[in-house]
Design brief:
The complex is a heterodimer of chains A (about 350) and B (about 325).
Chain A lengths: L1 E4 L5 H14 L3 E4 L5 H10 L6 H14 L4 E9 L8 H4 L1 H8 L6 E7 L9 H9 L4 H24 L5 H5 L13 E6 L2 H4 L8 H7 L2 E4 L6 H8 L9 H15 L5 E7 L3 H18 L3 E6 L6 H21 L18
Parallel strand pairs in A: 1-2, 1-3, 3-4, 5-6, 5-7, 7-8
Chain B lengths: L3 E9 L3 E8 L4 E8 L4 H14 L5 E9 L3 H8 L3 E2 L2 H12 L5 E5 L4 E7 L2 E7 L8 H11 L3 H9 L12 H14 L3 H19 L10 E4 L6 H11 L3 E2 L7 H14 L17 E7 L8 E7 L2 E6 L5 H4 L4
Parallel strand pairs in B: 1-4, 4-5, 6-9, 9-10
Antiparallel strand pairs in B: 1-2, 2-3, 6-7, 7-8, 11-12, 12-13
Classes of the chains: A alpha/beta (about 350), B alpha/beta (about 325).
């Protein structure tokens, strides 16, 4: 069977798991195109209007695959880490697609729920395997192969600082560029913003053109993230909230970056407090250049470019000042970041 | 060669186009504040012609800087030496004219921003996110609806004795709330003052969220002409708010200063001169079909020849040799 996988939401993180599993069961995988204007337009047109931009774009990707494939895979991610949840929109995603996308393409729903333990997370995949008519033996082998590939992918993201997982999956094999001649910017945001070149207005290349490399949340080891989040009295039970917060704090604390850009899509509930916690921590302690850029359906780039340009100007302005030691008080910006 | 060196600054914004001429000592020789009226090219051309007439004998432009949301367009028209974003330009201008300023509140036609200056550099800034509520274009609209000239909007607010409360989160909510209050029989000045307070509340909670607002506080941009808003800022912040002499053209001033600094490196200006502005400018927009992004490409013509192109994501059009 020809199965389509939408190049949207968390595909850049979980593709090796999904793709290897389905391929090992003997199916052919077709990826949707990289996000473009048509996908965006379709998503906005058919999705419920109060959903966030990444969810709308997922709809567009499903439509892109509808006529090219026999079925489209719609993962239902309930929880990706024991005793934590992710955004509830992921839980309702298959239903949203079913009721919104015209022409009702046939969908393969695959649950993933690690809430009560990592091993139990794979039940949903086994169920899908059975629905696809595979033998227990084949399912077991496919799953074990898929988990090996997934672990390799995750290890690689942590090991190769600055590696963009979406690029890695495209086989560009590009080594991470974390430090260009001017420095490094920490890009904090959900994978579907940070690794989607269309939604984020090509921010990585724009930064590179000004001489800045980028480092991403997925490049920060989980142990560092957990340790950084321990300072808060309560547990972060949103997995991505924890990742973004912990990654941001680690980057600031280790002075790995010259500045932080928080990318958020309009209306994101998790970001609304994670970004705030990062802003407060930065104001109280780290005092690095930091800005929040909100992304939505705009295709005009002027507003985005203005904010990005002004942010880089600010970093460079502050850095020039940093070389001069005032006779009174402390410099605003203490020390350029170095990557360990 | 004892020619008087002048520096041109242009700020092409959504509501106004501002032009300034500075001398080497950053003294303003001429400034123009023109309404964009949806036709930036014509208005800019008109403004440049006026500016040319006002130039002292024996002077010439030794550098040109542009800023504002229409900066690409303006840069293509005049061959600017510096093309800069509004934050840097505004910060530059304030540091020059009010060196002890620590906070800039800037409200323009469609943007509002806060810029924090510490020890002579921009230390932090924020801009409105996706919504333009509470900016100049909204005030313009409300003034038109109430049939009050925008120039009198602020002074009318000062007459209010008991301002009414207006919802400020969103321009649509604010407008419907204003209409409700008007139908309830509230006095016009109380409604307008209420609107000023709502806009200030919204600005401080949204753009100014979590920012340390320290004096001196400078208020600029077109909306700074509105005394009602200035008063509401002072009431909310508990500090006097300074509106600089050239509050309405600070972006253009910053652009001119940046141009001067750029020219100090010793290169000759690229500015095309006032005579070539007399040519006929035109634009053409088309949708590129090279990839599914279908970017809207703008072609900019001078006397029938393509001078520049922009709007493409890939850069293939903007890089292309102009004729």
């Amino acid at each position: 069977m020809k199965i389509g996988i939408p190049r949207a939401l968390l595909y850049s993180i979980y593709l090796p798991l999904w793709k290897t599993f389905l391929e090992s069961l003997g199916h052919q995988i077709v990826m949707s195109s990289h996000t473009d204007k048509k996908i965006l337009d379709n998503g906005v047109k058919f999705c419920v209007d109060d959903a966030c931009l990444p969810i709308k774009i997922f709809h567009g990707h499903v439509m892109d695959l509808a006529h090219k494939t026999d079925a489209v895979l719609v993962p239902r991610l309930v929880s990706i880490h024991p005793e934590e949840y992710i955004c509830p929109k992921f839980i309702g995603l298959p239903e949203m697609i079913k009721h919104s996308v015209p022409g009702s393409p046939s969908l393969l729903v695959m649950d993933y729920n690690a809430r009560s333990g990592t091993e139990k997370a794979y039940h949903g995949m086994k169920t899908l395997g059975r629905e696809l008519g595979a033998s227990e033996k084949l399912i077991k082998r496919a799953l074990s192969e898929a988990r090996i590939r997934q672990a390799e992918h995750e290890r690689r993201m942590e090991r190769e600082k600055g590696l963009n997982p979406a690029h890695a999956l495209d086989g560009k094999g590009m080594e991470g560029i974390i430090r260009l001649e001017q420095g490094t910017i920490g890009l904090i945001g959900h994978p579907y913003l940070v690794y989607d070149q269309f939604i984020n207005m090509d921010i990585c290349n724009k930064l590179a053109a000004r001489g800045y490399g980028t480092v991403f949340p997925e490049n920060i080891p989980m142990a560092d993230i957990e340790a950084a989040c321990k300072r808060y009295p309560k547990k972060m039970f949103w997995s991505y909230g924890k990742r973004l917060l912990g990654a941001g704090l680690t980057m600031m604390g280790d002075r790995q970056v010259d500045g932080l850009i928080l990318l958020t899509s309009f209306g994101c509930g998790i970001d609304s407090f994670v970004d705030e916690l990062l802003v407060i921590a930065n104001r109280r302690k780290y005092k690095l250049p930091l800005t929040i850029i909100t992304l939505d359906e705009h295709t005009g780039q002027a507003g985005f470019n203005t904010r990005l340009e002004a942010f880089i100007d600010m970093i460079e302005w502050r850095r020039r000042y940093d070389n001069y030691i005032p006779a009174h008080g402390l410099a605003v910006y203490t020390g350029k970041g170095t990557f360990r | 060669m004892s020619k008087l060196e002048l520096y041109l600054g242009l700020d092409v914004g959504s509501v106004s186009i501002n032009l300034v001429l500075l001398n080497k000592d950053y003294r303003v020789l001429e400034k123009l504040y023109l309404r964009t009226q949806g036709k930036p090219i014509e208005v800019l051309k008109e403004g440049l012609e006026k500016l040319y007439e006002s130039m002292p004998a024996g002077s010439n432009v030794s550098g040109a800087g542009v800023t504002g949301s229409g900066r690409e367009l303006a840069a293509a028209m005049v061959n600017a030496d510096v093309v800069k974003n509004e934050i840097t330009a505004h910060g530059m201008a304030v540091l020059q004219y009010i060196p002890n300023a620590q906070t800039i509140l800037e409200i323009g036609g469609q943007d509002s921003k806060i810029i924090l200056l510490r020890n002579g550099v921009v230390a932090d800034f924020a801009m409105n996110t996706v919504c333009a509520a509470g900016t100049g274009s909204f005030l313009d609209r409300q003034a038109a609806r109430l049939n009050i000239p925008i120039q009198e909007f602020g002074s009318l607010a000062l007459k209010s004795k008991s301002p009414t409360r207006i919802a400020g989160r969103c321009a649509v909510f604010a407008e419907s709330d204003m209409i409700h209050k008007q139908q309830m029989g509230c006095r016009r000045e109380d409604i307008i003052k209420g609107l000023c307070e709502a806009l200030v509340r919204n600005y401080l909670n949204n753009v100014g969220k979590g920012k340390e607002i320290l004096p001196q506080i400078v208020f600029q941009g077109g909306v700074a002409a509105n005394e009602g808003i200035k008063k509401s800022f002072e009431e909310a912040l508990g500090h006097p708010v300074i509106v600089p002499e050239h509050y309405d053209v600070m972006g253009a001033l910053g652009a001119a200063i940046l141009a001067h600094r750029e020219m100090m490196r010793g290169e000759a200006t690229k500015f095309c001169g006032f005579h070539s502005i007399k040519g006929s400018f035109a634009t053409n927009t088309f949708s590129c079909s090279g990839c599914p992004n279908l970017c809207e490409i703008v072609e900019f013509y001078l006397d029938g020849k393509v001078k520049a192109r922009w709007g493409d994501r890939c850069g293939n059009w903007s890089r292309k040799e102009s004729v």
